[in-house]
Amino acid sequence: MRLEQCRQIVIKLVSDIGEGHFFSFAAALSYYFLLALFPALIAFATLVGYLPIPHLVNTIVGAMAHVVPPESMGLVRRVVADVVSRNHAALLSFGLLGALWTCSSAFSTMIEALNLAYDVSETRSFWKTRLLTVELTFLIGIIVTIAFAFLAVGPHFGRYLAATIGLSRAFVASWPFLQHVVAALLMVLGVEGLYFMAPNVKHGFLASLPGSVFAVAGWMALSDGLSFYFQKFDHLNKTYGVLGGGIALLVWLYWSGFVILIGAAMNAEIIRLKKGTAVTQLQPVSPEVHAHAATNAN
């Protein structure tokens, strides 16, 4: 990609941020993300509690500290500790149903937001999009869980793999770095699947790769930046008291949704430049969009 094309993409992205209501959709996404997070944590902690691995829940929750602001981790740990101390069977059905409902609602809003980022209208039927939200809930949930599992396993797992498969000591020494690389690649794969499946456009799977890499890299940098800011400059607990951890979590979710939308808008602009057509002329998944466009033309 030439420098002039990169400049055009940046200019268009700045324009989209001002005109595309990304901030409003990021706020809506943060609301649904917050609603979905705690039922998902309940379902996760309940299911993991059945596995015969000691301290597995605490290990994986500790891995979340790589991205979640420290002020919010206290809130997350309290919720998980409360789940672990209760009857697993009683919480399992509630956690699974609550997580499925709230996560699918979050992905429903995400579909609407990504359609805006790609500048296309929704022509798929309600039941198709609702089924798609359930598929995205399971797909993204599994990928994110595996990614955090790679962050959670320590150096002992690297030595175990080396002894089992017969790998060299160099693999054991590089394992702490490799586990973060694998986790990042899995996150890119998850965002790639979201960009490929959710919006009402038809494009190749790899066409979403640039925006996916940008979104994950930006999300990781954003998480580190917010953690540093909350620790050094903005002491939320002094302002909001016991609500400080929740406010920090909401801010982190807000900017996470914003970065995801920017990555989608970047993909749309790259596709437009490659095809030489407006984003609104991208082939939709459903053929009804042609009839809709013809009606508007008439």
Topology (elements, then pairings):
Elements: H1 3-19, H2 22-48, H3 56-64, H4 70-84, H5 88-118, H6 126-152, H7 155-165, H8 169-197, H9 209-232, H10 236-240, H11 244-275, H12 288-297
What is the radius of gyration computed over CA atoms, rounded to a whole number of angstroms?
21 Å
Tally of helical runs: 12
Weakly predicted, low-confidence segments = 278-298
SSE string, helices as H and strands as E: HHHHHHHHHHHH
Mean pLDDT level: 78
Give the end-to-end Cα distance, rounded to a whole number of Å.
38 Å
Helix content: over 70%
Helix and strand content put the structural class at mainly alpha
Number of domains: 1
Main sheet: strands, sense, barrel: none
Shape, per Cα inertia axes: globular
Strand content: under 5%
Number of strands: 0
Explain how this protein is built:
Mean pLDDT is 78; it is low at 278-298. This protein has helices at 3-19, 22-48, 56-64, 70-84, 88-118, 126-152, 155-165, 169-197, 209-232, 236-240, 244-275, 288-297. The protein has one domain (3-286). The protein has 298 residues and is mainly alpha-helical. Helix 5 (88-118) crosses helix 6 and helix 9 (209-232) packs antiparallel against helix 11 (244-275). 80% of the residues lie in helices and 0% in strands. It is built from 12 helices and no strands.
